[in-house]
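S1.2 Input.
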Amino acid sequence: MSDLNSRGVMKAIYDVISQPSGKRDWESIRHLYHPRATMTRTGVAIDTLPANQCLTFDEYVKAAEENLAGASFKETEIGHECARLGAVAQVRSVYETIYRVGDREIHSRGVNFITMVRLADTWQIISIAWDNERAGVTIPDEWLN
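S1.3 Output.
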């Protein structure tokens, strides 16, 4: 992964989380994350999903497996921008989510901000922070593809 393919990275991440009820293949994307990467959820979560957390990759996986148990979850990228200078990149990935439990279906949209660096000729995620739309917080139209 010596040349940055930010769209490919986001597709891989969204493909893993977007599954029917059951375990996800987190190991298939572990290599995308630096061992010290952080994942920070801010704002409001869907129903009982915890918000305002700063997690390691392993803590995030554990929380996601617990929070999505029994649910079908699909996240699709609907906007993408990557700014890069040398060995540092900032990706803004706008997504829409469909969360299903039984007959209940919740639609939402949010934004992932991803910081990536190239270390030892490999691009890795250093941090991801995200938030969802809600009253008073709206994704700008120009961020959508």
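S1.4 Remarks. DSSP finds two helices and six strands in the chain.
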